[in-house]
Design brief:
By secondary structure, this protein is α/β, with parallel strands linked by helices. The strands form three sheets. The chain has an eight-stranded mixed β-sheet, with helices on both faces. A hairpin with a 3-residue loop joins β11 and β12. α1 runs antiparallel to α3 and α1 runs antiparallel to α7. The radius of gyration is 29 Å and the shape is elongated.
């Protein structure tokens, strides 16, 4: 008798476990339906292999999440409370809570571009009224729990019939193949830089696809091919928010010189004597920041006047900067002079579409390419017979490069805090700056005095040869750059309030092209000639970015993990981020989209 009771108990538990597996699988399917909302933020694949990856990734990821939820929450209860009525009710409540959390995560992801975390939850809670509309937050959970209770009872009553179909092993095999295949496909895509696949890396919560790049690089294999390094956004872009009204009284020539990896604290009388003197004779901005620590984000913020988070959207492959379009519509001739590799590093494929490009080969290095760039510009502007806007990009400091046979300057004692290898790079960097300084002199020697000249750094520079380390670093050394503007017939002045690359496009459009629109209608910045009302500057892209405030710097990644440093980026502060200001940042990053 006792043995029979034990057997009945084991059979009941076995039936409950089988039921639990099928209930978890059903919730995996529901999770896939809810998870489809993430694609509204990142967009759908445009290739067959993108659809294949997304399909197997979706099945594998959400089935895995549902099974993990069952294993953690429901399986222990099956052993402790092996009573079907209680278990079905508890399971329905747990599943409803899980799906509601997933649904809330899709809302947070669509609005802020990050998944739920303690930090993101605090942020969303502070902005709850803006995220939740109407009565859907009441109706939806009620509808979900009704579905869950119905499904739980339906499966329980038919569990024997389902078992007789012998579908369990087939379902497990399918889910297992999808899960493993998604990781194998991602390894290939990561190695070959197939962004049609890797752009989905952060789309689903708790998704950590396997990668192969570090393994390949450690074995001397170069798997980096140039893909269309962008994300996709299906939202409608309102850029500008209103049609522009522009009418220039007089058309003056504009020369914009951008220098890769030009640190503001390295412009001095020894390293860059010409630029130092030019700075003193014109309008200089002493607290100027790039929009990013790399060429792609720095140049994007400079030309578009938008946060780097927009640069990952595929829609910018066909949307050129409003500033260059406006110069073109005003009858300007647009010339672009830059090294070949920077053309491939641009954030959006339409970034330089309005220019007539002259590309310098880098066969003999960046410095040699810069020499050709300068010569090409000097030849070009001397034959122009109508107003022109030229963008000249110099790259030598990015690679610590100088031409063969270049006679540089004497080395100086580096900061004792630098490592031995960094001290070598420090002085080599100074040689490169001295070379670029001579190129600035060669450019400006033949430019008419009535030309508006802008000289700035695309981004700053960290003294390291490790590109991954440099890409992650968002310290002032990597993002604080010089900015000098020569306004025709205007004396020297020094601007001490904080400015950024976001303000360059609005300044030119307002004061050169005569645009009367409010700058908020087409840019994240304001005119450089007046202090910005914002107390923060966004620096970086959609994966990792920093918020520069007056007394602190907050670095945040896509998963909501953050660290707060002092204004000099020297000490980590033990404090929480201010939610209201971060909400402003996130709103600005999606303001020009109609979802």
């Amino acid at each position: 008798m006792v043995e029979r009771k034990k057997q009945m108990s084991r059979d009941r538990v076995s039936r409950l476990i089988n039921w639990g597996h099928w209930f978890a699988f059903f919730n995996g399917l529901l999770a896939m339906i809810v998870g489809s909302r993430y694609l509204g933020s990142v967009g759908y694949p445009e290739t067959w292999y993108g659809w294949v990856y997304l399909s197997v990734s979706t099945i594998g990821q959400f089935s895995f999440l549902a099974f993990i939820a069952y294993l953690i929450c429901l399986f222990p209860l099956t052993l402790i409370l092996p009573y079907s009525k209680i278990l079905r009710g508890v399971a329905a409540v747990i599943a409803t809570l899980s799906l509601c959390i997933l649904l809330y995560d899709t809302i947070v992801y669509a609005d802020y571009g990050m998944h739920l975390s303690p930090f993101a939850f605090d942020l969303a809670w502070a902005d709850l009224n803006a995220l939740l509309h109407g009565t859907s937050y009441i109706v939806t959970p009620l509808a979900i729990i009704a579905i869950e209770l119905t499904a739980a009872n339906f499966l329980w009553k038919r569990i024997e019939k389902i078992q007789k179909l012998n579908l369990g092993n087939k379902v497990i095999t399918l889910v297992g193949i999808c899960f493993v295949s998604s990781h194998l496909i991602h390894i290939w895509a990561d190695a070959a830089d197939i962004t049609e696949i890797t752009r989905f890396d952060d789309t689903y919560p708790l998704s950590y696809p396997a990668t192969a790049r570090s393994f390949m690089e450690s074995h001397g294999i170069d798997g980096s091919s140039q893909g269309d390094d962008v994300n996709h956004n299906t939202s409608v872009l309102n850029y500008p928010e209103q049609p522009l009204t522009c009418q220039a009284d007089t058309k003056i020539n504009v020369l914009m010189i951008t220098i890769d990896s030009l640190r503001a604290d390295m412009v001095d009388g020894k390293s860059m004597p010409f630029l130092q003197q030019y700075t003193e004779n014109n309008q200089s901005f002493t607290q100027h920041f790039s929009g990013g620590n790399q060429f792609r984000t720095g140049m994007f913020s400079l030309l578009y006047g938008l946060q780097g988070s927009y640069g990952d959207a595929r829609i910018f492959n066909s949307t050129s900067p409003l500033m260059t379009r406006s110069f073109q519509q005003a009858g300007y001739e647009l010339g672009l002079f830059l090294p070949e590799t920077n053309l491939n590093l641009r954030s959006s494929q339409a970034m330089f579409n309005d220019f007539n490009p002259v590309i310098a080969k880098e066969t003999n290095g960046s410095a040699d390419a810069d020499l050709h760039t300068v010569a090409s510009f000097n030849e070009w502007h001397s034959i122009q017979n109508k107003p022109w806007f030229a963008l000249v990009n110099l790259k030598a400091p990015e690679n610590f490069d100088t031409p063969v046979g270049f006679l540089g300057i004497e080395t100086v004692k580096a900061d004792p805090a630098l490592m031995p290898a960094q001290k070598v790079l420090f002085n080599q960097y100074r040689q490169s700056l001295y070379f670029v300084d001579q190129q600035l002199k060669a450019i400006l020697a033949n430019v008419p005095k009535d030309t508006l000249v802008i000289i700035t750094g695309v981004n700053g520079k960290m003294f390291t040869s490790n590109s991954d380390e440099a890409n992650r670093n968002l310290s002032p050394q990597s993002v604080k750059v010089p900015l000098v503007i020569h306004w025709p017939n205007t004396g020297a002045s020094k601007v001490k309030y904080r400015t950024s690359h976001y303000g360059i496009a609005p300044t030119l459009m307002t004061h050169v092209l005569g645009c009367t629109n409010n700058t908020t209608e087409y840019s994240a910045g304001r005119s450089l000639l007046q202090p910005s009302k914002e107390t923060w500057i966004y620096i970086g892209d959609s994966r990792i970015f920093a918020i520069y405030q007056e007394a602190e710097v907050t670095v945040i990644d896509r998963h909501g993990k953050y660290r707060i440093y002092d204004e000099n980026y020297e000490h980590r502060l033990n404090k929480k981020m201010s939610a209201p200001e971060l909400i402003e940042v996130m709103r600005e990053g999606r303001r020009f989209y109609n979802h």
